[in-house]
Amino acid sequence: MIKAxxxxxxxxxxxxxxxxxxxxxxxxxxxxxRFWPAALLIIAGLLVVxxxxxxxxxxxxGTPAPIAPTERLVIGGDFRFVxxxxxxxxxxxxxAQALLFLDPWLLAYxxxxxxxxASFVRWYEEPVLRQRYASQYxxxxxxxxxxxxRARPWRxxxxxx
Length: 161
Known about the structure:
Blueprint: H1 2-14, H2 16-28, H3 38-58, H4 85-101, H5 104-143
Helix pairs in contact: 1-3, 2-4, 2-5, 3-4, 4-5
């Protein structure tokens, strides 16, 4: 578990921190915040991302990085509401920064980031997970949406929606 925690920590700084922090800073310069309520969405997005990383270590016994995948399919916590909570959290952070700084370039970047993430999920992650976890992943996909969270958490004993 220590190896998974270290790998996840490294991947956290290499991926979400760059995508939702460094690149938006480079685009906007984080100058002249104008719409402060957006800071709450940044905090909420960050909490979702951090909880998902912790879940990958504890429940999945691995990392979100493709080079060090989990031993188990991660379907607890925020993954009961949406299949891609890390990506949704990262997008929330980017969109919140677009609001915070009223920066249309960050809005365009959010669209590009989502297109990139959705393509990666569709053409790499989903086939790999389907191959690795077979019917367990299929059942999960039928019950839990990829991008827009469910109103109530799914339980593996629930019938698919």
